[in-house]
Amino acid sequence: MVAVPTLDLLLVPLADALGFPVDQLRLAACLVLCIPTCTFLRAMRSMSLSRNILHFYSIVLGIWMSYYMYGLGTLTPIISSLIVYLAMKYLPTNFAYKFSAAFAFIFVFCCHIYRMLTDPYGWHMDFTSIQMLLTVRLMQFAFCVHDGTLPLTSLSSRQRKYRITKFPTLLEYYGWHFFLPAVIVLTFEYNAYMAYITNSPMPSKTQGQTTTHKETLIGWITSALSKLGVACLCIGSVVVLGGKYDVSEMEPYCNGDHSLMLKLWEIYAVAVKQRMRYYFAWYFSEALMDISGYGFSHKTGKWTRGNNVRMLTTEFGQNLHSCIDAWNKRVNKWLRFYAFERLPFSKSRNADITFLMSATWHGIYTGYFMAFVTIIFHRFTVQVARQRLRPQAMKNAVLKKVYDVLGIAASQLVLCYSLAPFLLLQASMALRVWNSTYWIVHTVCGVGALLVRAVVPLPPRKPSPSPANKSE
Question: pLDDT (tens digit, 9 = 90+) per residue, 309-339?
Fold first, then answer.
């Protein structure tokens, strides 16, 4: 049951006319309504009103939007975040941050189980969407509070930047969680939110100094309009395509009487169309960040602080690593700085665990795990190509161009093919798709990597400087 049935009276007929899911149309409506509310938030901030008013404003409207989207499911982020808040405040810090991080992850895991029981293999939006983002924030909060109790010499520059030394009030805490421009789409650290509320730049990671760049009216308007334009183009392409290249078409098409090239094209086109929906939500939210004033970086003087995706890099990256890093950057940073870099194992083992952690965070569908395990496999082939083929290609300008073009094409093929199970959700459907394409990407990448390792030698390592040279 939604909070504003009157609004649904307008959206449901529109969804039927456009052939668009009504839950996704609700998300779009909330984002559009955020334009005036974020503009007002910016105005209140410029008037130097009490911080508590700004917190309360975001909490009220953020909870309203969440309730409209997810109904009583909004109680789950409110209750789970309160449990972490109380744990971090009253339990011993060395235990509290471990408990809170584990609780947040286990809680979202249980939410995914509930979703599997109530809406198996459905693409409908429910409260697990906001709970996933909250899990990122709660784990960040737990580690940052713990970092605030440690000596500065034991912390990295990034940990020093985001460490929390003053425990927040409940109003500040929920103001961060329900921050209006980001509550249903984006996530970021608590210190970044408080720097925005107090209208002060974030300290430098290296020297703790602030910069003097100041935002301009034309700057935020231009940045916000450009991002809104990209968002509209992305969602417009989805509407224009209609039912063509839907996820539901992939498995029947690939098992039909079509050539291998057409099947691979179908897999690619379905993946790109699905990504356009995410681009719309992320670019729109980035625009809202700019409208509210959060998106300005005092360090660079650019409106990039709220950015979460680089569409051109994701779609035309020269290697798999670049494509993945440019997608959902804030979650990638969470996985990197709060999982990968804090795990006590080797880099390779940490990377594998982080991939599996990412799969579990997304959900417990068998297709998710198939997709991420496949990506782990392809990391091996990418590593072989980079270590052995790239140095050879760099010796010649023409070869480098060919290598770059082939890298773009191969990255997209591998990415879309590997993530087909992610879209299909079911392992059985994904296996039928891969069977229909003769497992060609797995085979070519695996056999190709073994052949390259056997034929192309590693380039000689550059000699490390002697101790005498180092001292000079």
Answer: 999 999 999 888 899 999 999 999 999 999 9
Measured from the Cβ of residue 10, the count of other Cβ atoms closer than 10 Å reads 12
Tell me, what's the pLDDT at 5?
61
In angstroms, the CA 336 to CA 351 distance is 9
Cα 205 to Cα 167: distance, rounded to the nearest angstrom: 21
| pLDDT at 417 exceeding the cut of 90 | yes
DSSP code of 204?
A: P
Residue 168 carries which DSSP code? Answer: P
Decide if 133 contacts 80 (C-beta within 8 A). no
Q: How far is Cα 138 from Cα 80, in angstroms, rounded to an integer?
A: 9
Answer whether 88's CB lies under 8 Å from 102's CB: no
Q: What is the DSSP letter of 301?
A: S
- Cα 300 to the chain's mean position, in Å? 22
Q: Which amino acid is at 318?
A: Q
What digits encode the pLDDT tens for the residues 192-206? 999 999 887 766 655
Q: Indicate whether 470 pLDDT > 70.
A: no
CA–CA distance from 470 to each of 384, 460, 462, 464, 466 (Å)?
Answer: 31, 21, 15, 10, 6
